[in-house]
## 1
Amino acid sequence: MSAFAEKTDVVIVGSGAAGSLMAAKLSKAGKKVIILEAGPERTLNDLISSQINARRLKWSGEPVQEKGAQPIGNVFNSGYGTGGSALHHYGVWPRLHTEDFNVKSLHGRSLDWPITYDDLRPYYDKIQQEVGISGDKASEIWRPEGDDYPLPPVPIFQQSEIIAKGFKNLGKRTSPLPLALNSRDYKGRPGCLWDGWCDAGCPTKALVNPLALYLPEAKKMGARVIHDATATRILTDNSGKKAVGVKYHTKEGIEVTQMADLVILAAFAVQNPRLLLNSADGGLANRSGLVGSYIMSHAAATVFGLFDQETEPYMGATGGQLLNQDSYDHKDQRDSGFGSYQWMIAQAVKPNDLLGFGGSNPALFGKKLTEFMKRAAQHFGGMTGCVEDLPLRENRVTLSADKDKFGMALASVAHTAHADSLALWQAAKAEGVEIFKAADAVQVWNGPLGPMHIMGGTIMGDDGEKSVTNSYGQCHDIDNLFIAGSGLFPTSGGVNPTFTVHALSLRSSEYIVKNWSSLT
Amino acid sequence: MVNLTPAQAKERKIPFQALNKDQAALIDHLGDAIVPGAKKVGLSHYIDHQLSAKHADNLLILRYLRVNPPFDGFYASSLTAFERAVTRKYNKNPSELTESEMTDFITIMMQKNPEGWNDAPPAPFFYFVLRSDAIDVTYGTMAAFDSLDIPYMAHIDPTQTWENIP
Ligand SMILES: Cc1cc2nc3c(=O)[nH]c(=O)nc-3n(C[C@H](O)[C@H](O)[C@H](O)COP(=O)(O)OP(=O)(O)OC[C@H]3O[C@@H](n4cnc5c(N)ncnc54)[C@H](O)[C@@H]3O)c2cc1C
Ligand code: SF4
């Protein structure tokens, strides 16, 4: 069965970080906006404080086939339903550094962005003012220029104090972790309660997830979110140079044609290229042949320890409390490997789940595990290195021969990290162990390589032969087709991506509003 | 519809839906050896309940681990391989193993496929998954937090009713 929906100004595919922000800004500018969200509707009341229930928020759309030596962990790293991955993200929001934008020019390897830090800086500043980031610019000595954080830093609990000593003893520095959550009430949203349930989604709006801010704003301005609506094809006119809408399937199996003046793909790094590749022979907006290429995922370098002192490991936010970026700038000056990494220190942990302390040392079982669980509940400490993943053309999303229930080819994602990224990850792990020893941990161990965040796949650039979009996310080949989200990143840097996703999305929204008549 | 926790479902001997009785017994036996206490809190009922839910509602850790649904075959084939490999090594059923035999066997299976472990996911992977399931049900509840002296501090309390028995 098929149906036609009334034409709209803008159709956005995906209600996550990028989609909800752009919907808010474009509807505020008077555009009629429809968001198509493949997953179910979720409300703040669905964000139950349990690591088991939290799994409901993970990707449960059509399966993604993963290949390569270091697969990207799509299900763990993606969300589904209102708010997307951002609904249960941890709100660690550092900025990219100046060098991240010019890696190729500076070092003759990796890629350049088509913009510099200075181009993005005003958008970082505007966004942090809008959403409220807690941090301390003065002690975050590595941070590039920009405004002070609007909120004071998050409090420090025992776990941080203990681990910070290790950094200090080795002559390394720590600062409060910049977190997109409220250290006190901010613009009508409450302060954080430091209970560590962010991974299950923050229902109080203390953390900036789409349900806390941009989706309600978008709805207030008239935007409509249609849930259980999976976009399956981007429609173009006969020339193939103008997008005219999107086809989507409802839960009931109805194929709906949604015509629009402008189309924005905000379905995250894997599903955006899947949609483009499924929309035309050889892929839509794919003159460069790069739709799907340069998929990246930070390698998580996990360090765990037990301490004699009580650490209160359950207190704080899931993202952590302190930051260290001593190994960030001068990517070519690492002892081993190439790139940048940062430490996110003292994450609040629960006993169970992949990131829980019970999972930290899988070799323990039986009585030893029981003893460990009791001790770790009060004496555990941990930190995670976010290690840059160098972009490789062959790390990419392609179409599988298998199809989903709508007849759309599934995404297959290959990812094998560059040897220099792996070397950097190894070095980070070893450094972490030294830091924990210097903090007098009585036991220290590392976890295996875990993929963290997904980026790339529809990279931006100046040259239409070497990238998919320009710096606004506008497809080189189709003026009124935009892509939003971390899929645009040509390089991953060694920081969490979502502050940058917001800054880029705001910049694109302003561009669209300003150029509306020539774009449509 | 009555909502029960896995432990209550176990106590009331609620029939399994996705697992057969032998599979459930094997899960409890091995799971409890890996995570003591898992059997008592209803590990097999927890897994059975999750396996019989539709994918979006299936909360098993397997979701994260690049195994596409349905998951029944994962457990069924691993349990068959487990039983076969134990019999090959000790000429006994898993339930007849002494504590130290079980410990030795788990030590092997967490590192490599024991002899006779075939037509199934790798043994170390199955170990990791079953261990995580058992930790979920043993340590992921409000009662378990309490016993570890961890303040739960829920924003919204979990229902803990993973069993929906018609
Ligand atoms: C556990 C976890 C913790 C994280 N913590 C941090 C952190 O601390 N800091 C940080 O910077 N980042 C973090 N991230 C990453 C962050 O969530 C993402 O970078 C961000 O959400 C990406 O935004 P997006 O809008 O591109 O995609 P998403 O937020 O994932 O939104 C995409 C949406 O598109 C929908 N969709 C997909 N396909 C279709 C289709 N065909 N039709 C319709 N809709 C579709 C999806 O269902 C989803 O809702 C974390 C992620 C996870 C999973
Ligand atoms: S710790 Fe703070 S941000 Fe995280 S869920 Fe609780 S109130 Fe929300």
Note: Chain A has a mean pLDDT of 97.
## 2
Amino acid sequence: MSFTDPDRPSRQIGRALPRSASRRLAQGRGRFASDITLPRMVHAAFVRSPHAHAELGAIALDAARAMPGIVGVFDAAAIDPWCTPWVGTLTHLAGLKSAPQYPLARGRVRFHGEPVAMVLATSRAEAEDAAEQITVDYQPLPPVVDALAALAPDAVPIHPELGDNLAFERRIEAGDIAAAMAMADEIITLDFDFARHTGVTLEPRAVVADWNEGEQRLTVHAGTQVPHMLQDIYALHFGLAAHQVRVLAPDVGGSFGIKIHIYPDEMAAIAASRALRRPVRFVADRLESFIGDIHARGHQVRAQIGVTRAGDITFFDVDDLTGIGPYSAYPRTSAVEANQVINLIGGPYAVANYRARARVVFQTKAMMSQYRAVGHPIATTVTEALVDAAARRIGVDPVTLRRRNLIADDAYPCQSASGMRFEALSHHGCLEKLHAMMGYDALRAEQAALRARGVRRGIGIASFIEITNPGAAFYGVGGAHISAQEGATIRLDAAGHVVLQAGVTEQGQGTETILAQIAAEALGLAPEQVLVRLGDTDSTPYGGGTWASRGAGVGGEAAWQAAHALRGQLLTLAASLLQADPSRLDLRNGQITDDDGTARMALADLARIAHFRPDTLPPGIVPELAATRHHVPRDYPFAFTNGVQGSLVEIDTETGFITLLRHWVVEDCGTIINPLLVDEQIRGGVVQGLGAALFEACRYDAEGQMTNATMADYLVPMAAEMPDIEIGHVCTPTAETALGAKGAGEAGTAAAAAAVLNAVNDALAPDAALLTALPLTPARVLAALGVIG
Amino acid sequence: MKSAAFDYVRAGSVAEAIARLAADPFGTKLLAGGQSLLPALNLRLSAPALLVDIARLPELAGITLTGTTLRIGAGCTHASLLTAPEIARHAPLIAEALAHVAHPAIRSRGTLGGSLANADPAAELPAVMLALDATMIIEGPSGTRHIKATDFFTGMFETALAADEILIALEIPIRTQRSGFAELARRHGDYAIIGLAATMTADATRLAFFAGGPTAQLAQRAAGALGTGPLNHERIAAACTALAQDLPAHDDPEASASMRLHLARVLLRRVITPWINPSIRTPITA
Amino acid sequence: MKPITLTINGETIRATVPPRLHLADFLRDQCGLTGTHLGCEHGVCGACTIRLDGAIVRSCLVLAVQADDTIIETIEGVTDSGEARALQAAFAARNALQCGYCTPGMVITALDFLATAPDPCDRSAIRAHLSGNYCRCTGYEAIIDAIAMVGGQ
Ligand SMILES: Cc1cc2nc3c(=O)[nH]c(=O)nc-3n(C[C@H](O)[C@H](O)[C@H](O)COP(=O)(O)OP(=O)(O)OC[C@H]3O[C@@H](n4cnc5c(N)ncnc54)[C@H](O)[C@@H]3O)c2cc1C
Ligand code: FES
Ligand code: FES
């Protein structure tokens, strides 16, 4: 089956269809976890540690108990009987250590914002009033803020029982670094500094937990990407059987990896529902989001590249250091980001010599773990800034150096120096397309002309690879109950439409719509005739949910297989009624047709007969009207995708302000199921990356307090500063699946900041100024220019 | 993020509002547009016992032109001033600055009086009032007083208003003058890293910087260095040098003191340089 | 507790509210109008944008008591009246929403832009008018496109 033939019958895959949920959401008819109200529901608020590190003394709860509207007050001692602790380690991340984490801090607090006590009240305002009445004795301990300082021999161990603060270390050595260094005519060393970010989903984290004592069941409405994973974890830690737990994901107001982790406050609120036997709602407010959500991306990297005068890159050498807060996150750990950084660096290039070290360190700041494009922005920025620095050093255009060193498009399958296996990528195809889209040569000419007039523009390019469609290699092999497979169940209803249930979830990517398109194409229906239901562990097939750009490639493939199985059943049934050869029948436009398209019977009639008049069927025919299929990628641990981004910036060298003029992306995600959705995924991802480039940073003071935990102070990208983004595609389907789809959810984020950094450094090159710290603030630009000290 | 409890009354008159304030000056807060007060309440940074809503008081409304002064009610919203023809004609600097204040849905409620009484060091309007040589009209238990803008802003979030006083209106002298405005903010509508509101009449230049210290302030030495009479590049350079003595050293995570001074000089040059050429049209009001 | 009377989406509503209750919580929790969203509760994100006496406001920065004797329109109101129909259709067609959490605030702000802008297709003017409405999902361009599409109709 080729999805590229635009004239094939029943074509749905590849159509730019709007999303089915858009109308409802645009009318304000979304139903988010934070909208859900249940009878007798109470609201949770938390007392959170104002200290980064302190010994916990007495916690006085009585004054809070006496406040109006209060239904329950908990500290660690009161909550622990309801919930067992968790440890964020996985066996395939060899040596990773962490300590047990509890819903409410026990003995010590280890980050500013750690929940210490919880109040349940009939309104959130009353819960906050009472929380203010709780007094806690803190004996401050020295904060451990800086990741490097946390490794010093005299550093205070954050978990004394773990010895030191080094949570995880991994080294890679491939090829012959010494020889590669000797071969290089130029070796360039750069020190990178990446700020911590957080996801800032517009809807904060939200759970409504409902323990039904009569049913002995826990129902949790959660703003989550991963209902089945939560079901498993809730059962484990609340002492229940999995089937006693139902997790529902309603509409989710943004996720980006923030909503796949276990959070102590959510666990406490759910435990409280059991303890109080009534529904509990916890909706993080924005302050709690900033200090309580997963942070990511805070890395310091020393990196080297070697290049010959002829323009051959001879090696990459990197040393990555990241501070993850006091615990490794559960259940995905906090080592994956650093692991991916060193897995991905240098990945687009045919360079066999590679040395890397990653160190993951405990510190007393908010926890870090997975957030959209895990590790990619860092790996891409380091790699691409090095490549540009090498190009500048040997005096060639950055595009030329990439043309020379990117893995050839006909070299696949192959493997990167770090051991990543590539099935088929298209770096050169993407680069040439981008070059044309940008009008690169004309831009360079314009740049030179404007520079003569004192206008400072820069052009930046960044090639990237993206990990999508992970198999069990990601988590399952390490012992996590995180499903790598996805299931889809499809059934015909009595009117000839279908209902499709799947384990992947929707947070706005358009999962429902692409699944409907896929099933519709297989069954010759219109997408509106496919009702898609997701996000309910009671009724959807088991699956891992939505993360790591796997919805289309893994979930979509399961849907395709299930729809195909149903198609086979329907054609067999129709053939028996029509006395035809099922292999000569087709499903088109809601009709059973001959293979030339001649209608033989309406699918609605077939459905009617199968449901209401089975007595008229030939003897021995038992209509099967449903199918379930599961899919997991097995041939490759991940389906790598690739692409390239371009950025055009203008710098005001007097003020240090950077204006993003234009941005381009060319990427290759294999079969495109819905170009409208893919393009907007990419645009949204790019803008998250542009936030990283210019604005975003979780700031901490020397005491370990986060100092910009409001939306006025943590700067996210807003409409007025963002450029229009032009997108192009190259299409190399994966041969591993029938659909050939790979992921696209993280491509935009992976390389946007790298392209901007390269553009800025290109603009500043005449001043020999070079920036290697993100975000690119005016202060940093002016300092690099030597305008300010 | 829910506010602590408080009581609320809508004042029927300025006199009533003053009486409420006088009854418990420290537990009572005036509520105008609420665009600075309500965020502070929601964040529990402030917990008054009583809010006195003055937003609908007719005594605080309206713009009136009397002879050579423009009187603007403290209750005028940012949005109303942005489109008012009297402002466009006689004090375009106000509208120019307001385009940089927050966003449409905030400007529709935020008021001139609230912005001035709040005295955020990075707010635009206090500097505009300094540049326009405005006079604040204040009412309290002991009657009405007039304070020059230069005496009104006393420190970070501090003004000459007593706890039981209300800013009623302000008066701006209508003069033949040029005016100019520039600010550097990271994003559209954000509070600025540094900003300048400037006016120049035949005999005085007023350079009001904001976000450069604890309060908006006139750069007197820089203005002195500009002098009067025809402008030239040397004088502007001298003003830039003198600016070092005007601006207090003010560091924050966005900018060090030296960066602020540098940026202030850039703004000064950018606003004033076009005025060298008398034929270049910048707003001249009368 | 204070009594208030106001018009919400054309209906007269009488209610008694604690003074500290902000209008967004009043609309969401007491009126069931959950199309108005909360993203920050300190005035920065724009998710709670509604119309009050014809002007767009942040409903997290207005007290319910302040809204006594006003006319409120929420996303539900501009949907029912048909006022937002073209915009909503353009948002859907252009895929100008993903999670949809920002969308009601965006639509209300966009209506305000279209009603007041001298040039309703001016992309940088659209961006400026929307500068206080945060969207984490879309990257904004599709939203700008959708508004410009309606502006050009
Ligand atoms: C997201 C956001 C961004 C913003 N960005 C900017 C910006 O870039 N620049 C800027 O300047 N502002 C900005 N603001 C603030 C906005 O301009 C406010 O409207 C203004 O600061 C306060 O006006 P208000 O009428 O809302 O005052 P309120 O919030 O009602 O009151 C503020 C204070 O002033 C007191 N007060 C109010 N009126 C009087 C009076 N007549 N007499 C005595 N005391 C009075 C109150 O008691 C209170 O203490 C922003 C606000 C938000 C939410
Ligand atoms: S919730 Fe009101 S502006 Fe964010
Ligand atoms: S669509 Fe998700 S925040 Fe805008």
Note: The pocket of FE2/S2 (inorganic) cluster (ligand 2) is lined by residues C 38-41, 43-48, 58, 60 (CB under 6 Å).
